[in-house]
Design goal:
- The N and C termini lie far apart (about 35 Å).
- The chain has one domain.
- Helix 1 packs across helix 3 and helix 1 packs across helix 4.
- It has 4 helices and no strands.
- The protein is about 80% helix and about 0% strand.
- It is mostly helical.
């Protein structure tokens, strides 16, 4: 699975949605701009993507995971207005 593939993009989106759903307290801290909250969520997302792939992520793959997570979080921000 390569970083530009639809399959990887789908995996990254699935991971982002899972992390947001399973860590609502950290998402709330991110919404409140609490230092460290983004780093925690980003780290959790990378670890989950790595677990699913069974290997470390390349730097461009990490960036895709972070991008999908950020977009998912921004959707949460819009929902909480």
């Amino acid at each position: 699975m390569t970083r530009g593939s639809a399959a990887f993009n789908g995996l990254a989106g699935d991971v982002a949605r899972m992390i947001v759903a399973e860590h609502p307290d950290t998402v709330d801290r991110w919404l409140d701009d609490e230092p460290g909250s983004w780093g925690r969520l980003a780290g959790l997302a990378v670890m989950e993507a790595r677990r699913r792939l069974g290997r470390p992520l390349a730097e461009p793959e990490r960036r895709v995971v972070w991008d999908r997570l950020w977009r998912t979080l921004e959707g949460e921000r819009l929902d909480h207005g």
